[in-house]
Amino acid sequence: MDDPYENTHEDAYDVVVVGGGPAGEVVADRVVRSGLTAVVVEAEAVGGECSYRACVPSKALLRPGAARAEARSVDGARQTVTAPLDPARVLARRDRFTGRGDDTGQADWLDGAGIALVRGHGRLAGERRVEVTGADGTLRTLRARRAVVICTGTEPALPSVEGIDRIGVWTNRQATTADAVPERLVVIGGGVVACETATAWRSLGSSVTLLVRDQALLTGWEPCAGEEVTRGLSDLGVTIRFGVSAVRVARDETTRTVTVETDDGATLVCDEVLAAVGRRPRTTDLGLGSVGLPAGGRLPVDDTCRVTAVDGDWLHAVGDVNHRAPLTHMAKYQARACAAAIAERAAGRPAVTGGGQPWSAEADRFAVPQAVFTRPEVASVGLTERAAREAGLAVRTVEYRIDDVAGAALHADDYRGLAKLVVDETRGVVVGCTLTGPMATELIHTATVAIVGEVPLERLWHAVPAFPTVSEVWLRLLEAYGL
Ligand SMILES: Cc1cc2nc3c(=O)[nH]c(=O)nc-3n(C[C@H](O)[C@H](O)[C@H](O)COP(=O)(O)OP(=O)(O)OC[C@H]3O[C@@H](n4cnc5c(N)ncnc54)[C@H](O)[C@@H]3O)c2cc1C
Ligand SMILES: NC(=O)c1ccc[n+]([C@@H]2O[C@H](COP(=O)([O-])OP(=O)(O)OC[C@H]3O[C@@H](n4cnc5c(N)ncnc54)[C@H](O)[C@@H]3O)[C@@H](O)[C@H]2O)c1
User: Is the peptide bond preceding residue 156 cis, with omega within 30 degrees of 0?
Assistant: First the structure.
């Protein structure tokens, strides 16, 4: 059958990328570097959730409080840092990172990289076709000669709480872009968004209450991570209520305050409520039906990020939308792999995976690092002890208090931190690591290298950490293991 788009060059690209967040930007950049052409379709702002309403603004809000706490943890410096944070300056600094949502810089970067940008909402319209509806309602069809890559990310899930759709509930968007510090903030959830947001706004002066359905924070992590963050947030003045769910919320139109009723019969009054109960894929209005897929679900993929439920090797999904490892750095890692696979197949080669090839995003399955900038920081990579046991590994764990390391005591008078290694005894290698305490987020990469490199512990013994650094915890862990 004749292809009506065959000669319409302006609307045909080798690769059509739907969504210009971290995943989409990197896929497009890498395919163009490989000699193919690419277009990015973006509905809101190039840079995605990460740049404007997630990672970047949240870390910009967290850093001043962390810097202040760090100075106050050293005698001699502590006495000089007595004033609270200056919210106006903190919010202004955040805005310098986000440009308040202005994506001119990132759009210019796409242009400079030779990537076309089409603004509008993209939907699949059958095999290798994407229809884009512009803000003015105009419709444009893009044809992909080789591949379509879905990088549409996620949107916040809302808990089923009566009235939650009528109070102007905060999601990550308001929590990272608000222009004023709420006097009283109630947070529903006990995961990373809940814990980081509580840290940030409490540091800026809010009175924060966490309503945590579970009996711990950061479930899914090693229990010590949640315990340390519970202690740290409590010390910061955050109220944490475990085993409690909100059942009803209502905003008073006169006072603008929100009343939150909980399932233990209590009532809280606050100024804002943040829902931080996880994310759902942005696939409801994506034309998935045109390629035989149900709307609204995740898009399972193989290690090259090819959507497994669709025949052929043209449809891919990268980043949060495939739910393999919903983090920016893993989205970008998958993007590099996916672009390499597309280039490999374009060259007529099969892109076989599983052997550490650049087109194989296999680290998603065993070495996902995560850095959480709470007080204290927590970071992890690889398997928890529980996950390793469930996977049938011969598990041995080693724990060490980081405060007992000379470098940690020099770093902060009140240093408090934990390190836990999960070792696969059969292979004699580290398969998981969790760290808590100051600089945990920077220290975790050492563990990532050990896990990905499958470095035997006897060999790791020869990687000598410098004295007097916090990294000496690695020596202590190996000694505790018996080396
Ligand atoms: C509060 C918060 C803090 C976070 N902090 C961190 C952190 O510190 N570190 C970290 O690694 N991760 C963090 N994350 C997770 C991180 O934000 C995501 O993993 C990351 O944004 C995923 O990138 P993505 O490109 O897959 O999706 P997104 O960043 O969500 O980008 C998707 C893009 O697709 C566009 N889009 C969607 N649908 C369409 C469509 N139909 N047509 C056209 N365009 C479309 C959207 O407008 C958006 O620009 C955080 C998340 C939250 C909520
Ligand atoms: N520093 C970082 O790496 C960072 C920071 C923020 C967010 N993120 C990413 O953003 C994503 C979303 O984070 P999140 O915290 O929203 O999700 P999450 O899955 O980490 O935590 C969700 C929390 O909400 C609770 N919950 C779920 N449903 C509930 C309900 N109906 N009522 C009450 N509580 C409920 C869960 O028990 C859990 O405590 C994650 O994938 C995370 O990796 C990463």
Answer: no
CA distances from 226 to 83, 218, 238 (A): 29, 5, 14
As given in the structure block, the two tokens for residue 305 are: 């990020």
Closest ligand (CA of 331): 1
Give φ, ψ of 187 to 5 degrees: -115, 125
Q: In sequence order, what DSSP letters do the residues of 11-32 get, joined into one string?
A: GEEEEEEE--SHHHHHHHHHHH
pTM over 0.80: yes
Q: Residue 69 to residues 82, 225, 229, 377: CA-CA distances in angstroms?
A: 11, 19, 15, 12
Q: Is the pLDDT of residue 6 over 70?
A: no
Residue having the nearest C-alpha atom to atom 52 of ligand 1 = 54
Q: Is the pLDDT of residue 7 over 70?
A: no
Q: Which residues line ligand 1 (CB under 6 A)?
A: 18-24, 41-44, 48-50, 54-55, 58-59, 121-122, 151-154, 172, 176, 193, 282, 286, 319-321, 326-329, 331
Alpha helices in 380-430 (DSSP H): 385-390, 406-411
Asked if residues 142 and 128 have their Cβ atoms less than 8 Å apart, the reply is no
How does DSSP classify residue 466?
A: P
Of 119, 48, 122, 153, whose CA–CA distance to 287 is shortest? 122
What is the ipTM, given to two decimal places? 0.98
CA distances, 291 to each of 123, 129, 308, 315, 323 (Å) = 11, 10, 12, 10, 20
Distance CA(461)–CA(478), nearest Å, equals: 7
Question: Is 315's pLDDT higher than 60?
Answer: yes
Tokens for 200? 């940030």
What are the Cα distances from residue 433, in Å, to 326, 380, 399? 19, 6, 10
DSSP-derived secondary structure for 62-129: HHHHHHHHHHHTSTTTGGG--SPP-HHHHHHHHHHHHGGG--HHHHHHHHHTT-EEEESEEEE-STTE
